[in-house]
């Protein structure tokens, strides 16, 4: 999971993850369950991390128009 965390943040923002803190796992089965056309089912979960970034700014690509920091 942490390998994916680092890879996705780098791909989406250009930022390298050097430190992180696990925050939690969340899922709401009533709204997170998905059934595919072939009948296979998947339950989506959110795995949350806090990642300090210091004074650096993300690099936006053509998939993004803005970014924001949240507490």
Strand order of the biggest β-sheet? 1-4
Distance between the termini: 23 Å
Q: Unreliable runs, pLDDT <50, ≥5 residues?
A: none
Main sheet characteristics: 2 strands, antiparallel
What percentage of residues falls in helices of 4 or more residues?
Answer: 10-25%
Number of strands: 4
Arithmetic mean pLDDT: 88
Question: Can you give a write-up of this model?
Answer:
The chain has 71 residues and is α+β, with helices and mostly antiparallel strands. 23% of the residues lie in helices and 24% in strands. It has a two-stranded antiparallel ribbon with strand order 1-4. A two-stranded antiparallel ribbon has the order 2-3. It is extended.
What descriptors fit this protein?
single chain; 71 residues; alpha+beta; two-stranded antiparallel sheet; 2 helices; extended
List the helices and strands and how they pair.
Elements: H1 2-13, E1 21-26, H2 29-32, E2 33-35, E3 41-43, E4 46-50
Antiparallel strand pairs: 1-4, 2-3
Write a brief structural summary.
The chain has 2 helices and 4 strands; from the N terminus they run H-E-H-E-E-E.
């Amino acid at each position: 999971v942490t390998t994916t965390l680092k890879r996705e943040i780098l791909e989406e923002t250009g930022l390298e993850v050097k430190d992180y803190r696990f925050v939690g796992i969340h899922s709401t089965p009533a709204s997170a369950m998905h059934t595919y056309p072939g009948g296979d089912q998947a339950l989506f979960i959110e795995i949350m991390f806090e990642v300090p970034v210091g004074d650096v700014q993300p690099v936006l690509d053509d998939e993004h128009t803005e970014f924001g920091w949240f507490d």
